[in-house]
C-alpha cells in the first residue's frame, strides 16, 4: 500500500514539475513565427496574432488567444477573411486519464468572417484546402472511431458577436448574418442543459431577427439527443413579405436517434401571421434520399390578407410584357425528395373564395408529385380532387380528376369571379391531362373532358321569356319599346358535357328544362382570348302567362334562336333574328308543302 502511495505522489510531483517548467520556462509566443509561416506555406494567406498567447496546464489545459486574423486572397476587399477578438478553451487535465472530458470553459467573442465572391468567380475559399487534407483525414477518422469516452462535462459554451458577411461583387450585394449570442449552460450526459440563441440577418430584400431557448440532453452511449421546450420567435421584414412584416413563433420538441439516423419533431404550436398550426415530422436520413413523413393540422387561413393588394396586380397587368420567352420551371429537385404529407385545414379563404374542412394527402418520390386525395367543403357541397405531376422529364406532364357535388353555384361565382350569371345546385366532374407548366402552353396543351348538371336554378342577366315575347311582337309588326323586367330565367335542370383541346372549350349538348320552355345549345369558349361564340335554341312548351305572357302564345312550338358573344367578363346576349326568320320561313314552307300535298290527294281521289 505504501508503494502505491509513493507511486502516486511521484506521478503528481512529475506533473507539477512539468507544469512549472512549461509555464515558467516555455513561452508559446515563441512559436508564433512558425505558426504564421506554416499557414503562409499551406494556404498563401497571412495569419496575424497581435495579442500574446497564454496557456495553462494544471489543473486545466487551456489556451487564451486574441487579435487573430487570416487574410483573404490578394486583391480581395475586405483584406481579412477571418478576425477573432477573443477565444478561450479550458479542459480539465486529470479526468482525461479516465477517458472523461471536463470542459471548464469554451468561449468565442467578436469573430468576423468575410466571404467574397468576385466577378470572375474566384472566392475567399480558393487555396485554403491542401493536397494532403484527404490523406490526413483518414487516419484521424480511424483513431476517433476506436476512442470511447466515459463521460463529458461542460461548464459552459458561449459564442457572442459573431458575424458572417457574404459579399457578391457581380450582383453588388452583401448579406450579413449575425449570431449575437449562443449559450449552452452546464452540460453533462443524461442531464438536460439550457440553450439559448439570438440571431439576425440582413439581405437585399429582407431582414430577419430570431431568438430562441430550450434544453437538450445527450444519452451516455451517444445514441440519443433530445431537445425539449424549444421556443423560437422570428420576425421577417421586407417589401416582398406579406404586409411587409411577418411574425412567427414555434414551440417544439425533437428526438434524434444518432445510431439509427432518425429524427422526430413534435410541433406543439406554430403561428405565422394569423395562421396557427400543430403537427409532427419524422425523418429517416439513413437512406440515400432522406425519407420525410409529416402530419400537420392548421386552423383558419385567410390568404387574401397575405397576398398583394389588387392595385399591385392591376399595375402588373398594365406593365408591358417581358421580351424574355417563358421557360419551363425547374422541378428536378423533386427527384431528391421522398416525402409523405398529410394536411388538415379548418378553412381557407383565397381570392374571396371560402372553403372548409380540408383533408389532403400528398406524396413526392422519384420526381413524381402525387396528390392522392384532396377533400373540402365548398359552398354547401363537396370538392374531391386527385392529381399527379410527373417531373422526371424536362417538360413536366400532369393529370387530374376533379369532382364537385351539391355546390351552390351562385355565391361561389360571386365570391370567386364577381360574376352574377348562374344559380342552382351544381354537380361537376372533369378529367384531364397535359404537358408543360408554362401558363400559355398549359392552356394549349390541356386535354380534358367533363360533365355538369345544375338543378333548380336560374340564369341571371337574361330573361328568355321576355325576349321571346319581344320577338313575337316584332314578328307581328309591333316595334314599341320593350317593357323592363328582371333579367332572370328560371329552370329546373341544366345539363351538358364539354371537352377542352388546343385552348378551346367546346360544349355540344347544352340542355335546359323549365315548365315554360326547353333550351338547347352548343358553342365554344376560347381560354386564350376569352372569346365566347355560343348559340341557344329555345322552344316554348307552355304559356308564358306565369312570367307575364298571355294565356296562349302564338310562338308555342316555334324554335327561338339566341346568340351569346363577347367575353367571359362581359357576355352579350341577343336574339338571332336571322335564324329566327329562317326557322319561320322553313315552317311556312313546310305548311305550304303539306297544303299542296293535301290538295293533290283530293284531286287524285284520296290516293
Largest sheet: 30 strands, mixed
Kindly, what is the distance between the CA atoms of the first and last residues, rounded to a whole number of angstroms?
147 Å
Strand tally, please?
30
Helix-strand makeup class: alpha+beta
Radius of gyration from CA coordinates: 40 Å
Shape: elongated
Helix fraction, binned, reads 10-25%
Tally of individual helices = 8
Please report which band the strand proportion falls in: under 5%, 5-15%, 15-25%, 25-35%, 35-45% or over 45%.
over 45%
User: How confident overall, as mean pLDDT?
Assistant: 82
Low-confidence stretches: 131-147, 311-322, 546-552
Structure description:
With 607 residues, the protein is of the alpha+beta class. The chain is elongated.
What are the key terms here?
single chain, 607 residues, alpha+beta, 30-stranded mixed sheet, 8 helices, elongated
Tell me briefly what this model is.
19% of the residues lie in helices and 50% in strands. It is α+β, with helices and mostly antiparallel strands and 607 residues long.
Topology record:
Layout: H1 2-24, H2 32-43, E1 47-49, E2 54-56, E3 60-71, E4 80-92, E5 100-109, E6 112-117, H3 133-146, E7 151-154, E8 157-168, E9 173-184, E10 187-188, E11 193-203, E12 206-218, E13 224-237, E14 245-257, E15 262-272, E16 275-284, E17 291-302, H4 310-318, E18 338-350, E19 353-365, E20 368-378, E21 381-390, E22 397-408, H5 409-417, E23 422-435, H6 439-445, E24 447-460, H7 464-475, E25 488-501, E26 504-513, E27 517-526, E28 532-540, E29 559-566, E30 571-575, H8 577-603
Amino acid at each position: 500500500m505504501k508503494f502505491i502511495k509513493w507511486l502516486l505522489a511521484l506521478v503528481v510531483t512529475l506533473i507539477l514539475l512539468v507544469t512549472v517548467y512549461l509555464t515558467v520556462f516555455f513561452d508559446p509566443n515563441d512559436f508564433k513565427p512558425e505558426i504564421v509561416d506554416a499557414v503562409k506555406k499551406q494556404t498563401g494567406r497571412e495569419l496575424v496574432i497581435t495579442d500574446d498567447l497564454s496557456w495553462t496546464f494544471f489543473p486545466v489545459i487551456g489556451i487564451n488567444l486574441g487579435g487573430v486574423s487570416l487574410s483573404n486572397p490578394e486583391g480581395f476587399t475586405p483584406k481579412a477573411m477571418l478576425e477573432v477578438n477573443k477565444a478561450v478553451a479550458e479542459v480539465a487535465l486529470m479526468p482525461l486519464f479516465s477517458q472523461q472530458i471536463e470542459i471548464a470553459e469554451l468561449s468565442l467573442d467578436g469573430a468576423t468572417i468575410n466571404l467574397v465572391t468576385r466577378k470572375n468567380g474566384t472566392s475567399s475559399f480558393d487555396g485554403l484546402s491542401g493536397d494532403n487534407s484527404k490523406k490526413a483525414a483518414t487516419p484521424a477518422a480511424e483513431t476517433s472511431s476506436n476512442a470511447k469516452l466515459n463521460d463529458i462535462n461542460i461548464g459552459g459554451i458561449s459564442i457572442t458577436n459573431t458575424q458572417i458577411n457574404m459579399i457578391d461583387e457581380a450582383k453588388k450585394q452583401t448579406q450579413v448574418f449575425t449570431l449575437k449570442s449562443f449559450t449552452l449552460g452546464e452540460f453533462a450526459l443524461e442531464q438536460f442543459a439550457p440553450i439559448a440563441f439570438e440571431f439576425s440577418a440582413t439581405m437585399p430584400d429582407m431582414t430577419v431577427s430570431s431568438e430562441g431557448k430550450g434544453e437538450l440532453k445527450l444519452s451516455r452511449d451517444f445514441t440519443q439527443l433530445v431537445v425539449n421546450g424549444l421556443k423560437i420567435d422570428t420576425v421577417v421584414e421586407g417589401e416582398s413579405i406579406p404586409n411587409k412584416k411577418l411574425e412567427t413563433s414555434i414551440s417544439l420538441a425533437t428526438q434524434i436517434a444518432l445510431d439509427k439516423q432518425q429524427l422526430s419533431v413534435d410541433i406543439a404550436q406554430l403561428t405565422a401571421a394569423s395562421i396557427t398550426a400543430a403537427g409532427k415530422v419524422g425523418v429517416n436520413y439513413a437512406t440515400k434520399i432522406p425519407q420525410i413523413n409529416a402530419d400537420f393540422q392548421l386552423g383558419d387561413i385567410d390568404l387574401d390578407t397575405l397576398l398583394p393588394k389588387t392595385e399591385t396586380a392591376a399595375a402588373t397587368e398594365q406593365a408591358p410584357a417581358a421580351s424574355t420567352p417563358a421557360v419551363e420551371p425547374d422541378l428536378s429537385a423533386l427527384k431528391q425528395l421522398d416525402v409523405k404529407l398529410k394536411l388538415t385545414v379548418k378553412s381557407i379563404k383565397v381570392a374571396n373564395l371560402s372553403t372548409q374542412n380540408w383533408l389532403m394527402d400528398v406524396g413526392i418520390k422519384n420526381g413524381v408529385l402525387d396528390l392522392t386525395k384532396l377533400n373540402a367543403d365548398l359552398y354547401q357541397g363537396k370538392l374531391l380532387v386527385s392529381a399527379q405531376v410527373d417531373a422526371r422529364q424536362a417538360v413536366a406532364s400532369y393529370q387530374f380528376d376533379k369532382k364537385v357535388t351539391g355546390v351552390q353555384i351562385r355565391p361561389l361565382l360571386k365570391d370567386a369571379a364577381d360574376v352574377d350569371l348562374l344559380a342552382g345546385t351544381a354537380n361537376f366532374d372533369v378529367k384531364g391531362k397535359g404537358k408543360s407548366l408554362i401558363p400559355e402552353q398549359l392552356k394549349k396543351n390541356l386535354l380534358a373532358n367533363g360533365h355538369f348538371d345544375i338543378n333548380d336554378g336560374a340564369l341571371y342577366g337574361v330573361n328568355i321569356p321576355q325576349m321571346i315575347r319581344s320577338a313575337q311582337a316584332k314578328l307581328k309588326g309591333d316595334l314599341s319599346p320593350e317593357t323592363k323586367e328582371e333579367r332572370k330565367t328560371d329552370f329546373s335542370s341544366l345539363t351538358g358535357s364539354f371537352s377542352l383541346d388546343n385552348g378551346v372549350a367546346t360544349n355540344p349538348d347544352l340542355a335546359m328544362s323549365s315548365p315554360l320552355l326547353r333550351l338547347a345549345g352548343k358553342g365554344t369558349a376560347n381560354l386564350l382570348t376569352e372569346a365566347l361564340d355560343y348559340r341557344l335554341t329555345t322552344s316554348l312548351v307552355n304559356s308564358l302567362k306565369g312570367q307575364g305572357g298571355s294565356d296562349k302564345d302564338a310562338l308555342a312550338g316555334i324554335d327561338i334562336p339566341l346568340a351569346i358573344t363577347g367575353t367571359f367578363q362581359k357576355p352579350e346576349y341577343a336574339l338571332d333574328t336571322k335564324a329566327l326568320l329562317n326557322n319561320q320561313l322553313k315552317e311556312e314552307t313546310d305548311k305550304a308543302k303539306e297544303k299542296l300535298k293535301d290538295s293533290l290527294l283530293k284531286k287524285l281521289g284520296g290516293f
